[in-house]
Task: inverse folding
């Protein structure tokens, strides 16, 4: 936060959503004032003008007015529908990550946020991201529900046990912003947070190269798949293999035993590792053992990343190496657009 | 004697025995079937719970005076805000107006001797006591730290506090709510006096009819939810915990399916009280009576369809979120209708500013802010930012405290002369009402700003830039605290030293004002026959205006 004012009334705008959420906020403030002024004025005016002149007076009787009732039912309804529409449009943007986003894996646990970049760098309670790039967080939790909240980006999403949830944003201004856990998660809930560092692309590249770690998620996943967990003995044997084929499966529809169809997304892969018997692919026996309790959330992320990498067509869209196609989905605020480099340069450490 | 002429002759004859002195032993209270005595026992109990909840609130505000968690350890703070919420919601707000004022007044307002099921009414009090006792026991054993929302899997798997004991207390307490609601529905259907048609009912009764429907239909769901929670915690059947095959979001759906309608349990009775206050102190029939009555029913019905707006960022699907946002916006309409009709009731009235009316007007201001900020939180794209921040905390305090608590206090002041036969100090009453209004706004308005700035709720420690607004909030809470303690003193004082209130101090037409103060055990000496419309202040309602004026003149002379 570069400008900590005396009484901060307003958080910084640092993502492409920020101006949209703020515009909605100001619209609602305007609506509130437009309703408050006539009602409060009427109460004040009537209170003064019709103050009792003698005790126990009997003012003339009135029963109401159909016209007035209709008017003050329809006007609030119409206004509330405009608010609904505005909210729905902004929400649609917040909920729909673009295909070209760079992915970061987030794991929440009591009481810290762990992040892992596609290039292997890990951090705790900090998150470094480049400015002007679409970033998509794939989030899981090791224990209870948490919520990943960056006020300056005007967005948050709960992280729910047993599944992946997603959050995306496009930061518009370099700086250091609060990261909070917004869903109560026990003893040290208020300490579960840190900072999001938004950096110019060049600084981000420097940061990446200064923090090289051993394995990328895909490499770690391959290691788990072929060596540590032995998945490969069933899932990588060519035409005769016992387990379902994993190549080019990501984001396709898979037929299940029993007749259902499911999209093989991250949650499906995750569930198939932890509860293999629950959604068996057509043509296979439910013989796979569960890996529940044997893999950590971070290892799961790596396995999912590796299995995604086996589907180059589908995974390519989500790869960091396609940043050249990056365009902000929503128009950034005018004053921050200048600082928003097109970020056409591919990330320095690619891992094809 | 001098009060006799202010009321319709025949109904009230000033019997020696009223409900308070008809039997003075402890047993005569504990085994009473009189709805008025049961209401008084509820009044005492909910007041104790309110004070305890208030002490927790004071502790929270003191802790938040500084950014670090220095007054309390974070674990203690977590218990304090959890217990503040549980006591205030389940043991104060939900029973407050229905069990105290509703219990006391509904039979009198409809011209009945008692509720339809007096023994069930006593049973509901005992269930409430049992549940309250259990909750207090659990708090003394070590308390609970899950937040009043009990979100899984924290509450089922991770919390080492007394979740089961408190859950059981809430489970049991639900039966008290259900029985009270059932009793009101049966009573309003079957016990109305001759001539008391549905559209002659005071709006207070309409509001309680609506709230009773919610109590009867909604409360079983929280009972089921706590039961499922218990099954999972005790026998590890996977219901909510994903590691054993459950779904944590299912808990949120079930919890809010009750707890959102419960929000309307906590505001509809308040709206009923305000309709009475606004009409009585402007001496005007409520503008658009039918619209105000049916808007209560509409709020109760739509209240069941909006629970998903608590789950906007919980991982429910995008379209589910949009549908719930739409339905939430629709609920704004009946609330707006009420506001406009209350304001229009003042038009061409004869408005006096006695203490209850100050609460009534205060309610209109605070509920306006509470309702409008509800629109902010219903706008789904904006709420992604606001959920779980202090904006939400401020919003629901504006509705719960600015709405229900203010209405409850207004109602207590309004019917105090009827319930006790004594009049409190009008001077201190007005001072207290104004302190509550100012203190409340100073406490909670800064929290809207904190919330937009991004301060999450349930934080024992917070970044330094939030401190200034937190200091405002704590300062306001001190003023609010003083304003809330004062009524205990001057109302208590009035019981012994207060002057005789008379049967109908404000010359009002409602049936409760046509019996003696305090009312006799049977409520009316002669069963009333209603020949007038609701809120008729003129001659046709049978009020003797001239006699009441003569009484005032006599009082002024002596």
Result:
């Amino acid at each position: 936060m570069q400008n900590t004012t005396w009484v901060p009334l307003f958080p910084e705008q640092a993502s492409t959503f920020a101006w949209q959420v703020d515009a909605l906020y100001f619209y609602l403030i305007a609506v509130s004032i437009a309703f408050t002024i006539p009602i409060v004025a009427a109460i004040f005016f009537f209170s003064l003008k019709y103050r009792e002149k003698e005790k126990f007076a009997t003012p003339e009787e009135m029963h109401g007015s159909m016209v007035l009732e209709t008017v003050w039912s329809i006007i609030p309804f119409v206004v509330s529908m405009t608010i609904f529409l505005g909210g729905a449009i902004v929400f649609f943007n917040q909920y729909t990550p673009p295909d070209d986003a760079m992915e970061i894996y987030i794991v929440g646990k009591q009481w810290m946020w762990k992040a892992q970049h596609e290039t292997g760098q890990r951090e705790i309670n900090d998150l470094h991201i480049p400015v002007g790039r679409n970033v998509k967080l794939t989030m899981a939790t090791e224990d209870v529900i948490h919520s990943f909240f960056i006020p300056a980006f005007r967005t948050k999403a709960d992280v729910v046990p047993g599944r992946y949830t997603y959050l995306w944003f496009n930061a518009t201004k370099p700086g250091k912003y609060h990261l909070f856990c917004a869903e109560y998660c026990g003893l040290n809930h208020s300490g579960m947070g840190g900072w999001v560092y938004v950096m110019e692309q060049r600084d981000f590249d420097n940061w990446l190269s200064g923090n090289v770690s051993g394995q990328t998620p895909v490499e770690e996943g391959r290691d788990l798949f072929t060596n540590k967990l032995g998945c490969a003995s069933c899932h990588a044997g060519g035409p005769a293999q016992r387990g379902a084929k994993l190549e080019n499966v990501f984001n396709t529809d898979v037929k299940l035993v029993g007749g259902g169809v499911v999209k093989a997304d991250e949650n499906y892969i995750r569930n198939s590792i932890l509860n293999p018997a629950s959604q068996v692919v057509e043509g296979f026996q439910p013989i796979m053992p569960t890996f529940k309790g044997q893999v950590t959330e971070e290892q799961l992320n790596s396995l999912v990343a590796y299995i995604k990498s086996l589907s180059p067509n589908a995974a390519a869209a989500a790869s960091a190496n396609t940043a050249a196609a990056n365009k902000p989905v929503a128009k950034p605020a005018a004053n921050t657009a200048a600082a928003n480099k097109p970020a056409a340069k591919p990330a320095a450490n690619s891992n094809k | 004697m001098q009060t006799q002429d202010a009321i319709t002759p025949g109904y009230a004859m000033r019997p020696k025995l009223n409900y308070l002195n008809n039997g003075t032993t402890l047993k005569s209270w504990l085994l009473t079937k009189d709805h008025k005595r049961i209401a008084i026992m509820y009044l005492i109990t909910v007041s104790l719970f309110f004070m305890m909840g208030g002490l927790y609130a004071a502790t929270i505000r003191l802790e938040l005076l500084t950014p670090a968690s220095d007054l309390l350890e974070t674990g203690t703070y977590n218990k304090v805000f959890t217990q503040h919420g549980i006591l205030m919601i389940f043991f104060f707000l939900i029973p407050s107006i229905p069990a105290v004022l509703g219990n006391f007044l509904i039979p009198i307002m409809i011209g009945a001797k008692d509720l339809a099921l007096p023994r069930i009414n006593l049973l509901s009090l005992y269930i409430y006591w049992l549940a309250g006792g259990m909750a207090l026991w659990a708090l003394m054993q070590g308390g609970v730290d899950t937040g009043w929302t009990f979100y899984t899997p924290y509450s089922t798997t991770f919390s080492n506090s007394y979740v089961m004991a408190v859950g059981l207390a809430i489970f049991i307490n639900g039966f008290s709510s259900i029985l009270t609601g059932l009793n009101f529905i049966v009573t309003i259907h079957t016990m109305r006096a001759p001539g008391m048609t549905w559209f002659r009912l005071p709006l207070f009764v309409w509001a309680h009819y609506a709230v009773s429907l919610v109590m009867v239909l909604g409360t079983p769901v929280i009972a089921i939810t706590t039961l499922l929670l218990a099954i999972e915690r005790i026998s590890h059947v996977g219901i909510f915990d994903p590691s054993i095959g459950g779904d944590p979001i299912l808990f949120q759906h079930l919890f809010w399916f009750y707890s959102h309608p419960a929000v309307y349990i906590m505001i509809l009775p308040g709206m009923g009280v305000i309709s009475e206050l606004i009409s009585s102190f402007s001496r005007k029939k409520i503008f658009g009576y039918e619209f105000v009555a049916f808007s209560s029913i509409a709020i109760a019905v739509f209240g069941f369809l909006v629970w998903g707006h608590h789950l906007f960022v919980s991982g429910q699907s995008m379209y589910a979120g949009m549908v719930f946002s739409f339905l939430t916006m629709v609920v704004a309409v009946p609330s707006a209708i009420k506001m406009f009709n209350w304001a229009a009731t003042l038009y061409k009235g004869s408005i006096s500013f006695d203490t209850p009316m100050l609460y009534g007007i205060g309610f209109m201001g605070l509920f306006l802010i509470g309702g409008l900020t509800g629109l902010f939180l219903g706008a789904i794209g904006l709420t992604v930012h606001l959920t779980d921040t202090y904006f939400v905390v401020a919003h629901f305090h504006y509705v719960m405290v600015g709405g229900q608590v203010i209405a409850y206090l207004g109602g207590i002041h309004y019917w105090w002369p009827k319930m006790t036969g004594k009049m409190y100090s009008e001077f201190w009453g007005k001072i207290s009402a104004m302190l509550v209004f100012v203190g409340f706004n100073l406490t909670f308005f800064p929290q809207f700003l904190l919330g937009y700035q991004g301060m999450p709720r349930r934080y024992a420690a917070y970044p330094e830039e939030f401190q200034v607004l937190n200091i405002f909030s704590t300062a306001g809470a001190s003023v609010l605290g003083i304003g809330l303690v004062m009524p205990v003193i001057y109302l208590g004082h009035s019981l012994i030293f207060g002057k005789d209130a008379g049967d109908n101090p404000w010359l009002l037409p409602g049936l409760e004002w046509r019996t003696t103060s305090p009312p006799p055990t049977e409520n009316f000496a002669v069963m009333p026959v209603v020949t007038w419309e609701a809120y008729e202040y003129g001659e046709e309602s049978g009020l003797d205006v001239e006699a009441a004026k003569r009484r005032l003149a006599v009082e002024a002379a002596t």
Summary: The CA atoms of residues 102 and 320 of chain A lie 4 Å apart. The first strand of chain A starts at residue 102 and ends at 109. Chain A touches chain B through 94 residues (CB under 8 Å). The two ends of chain A are 36 Å apart (CA to CA).
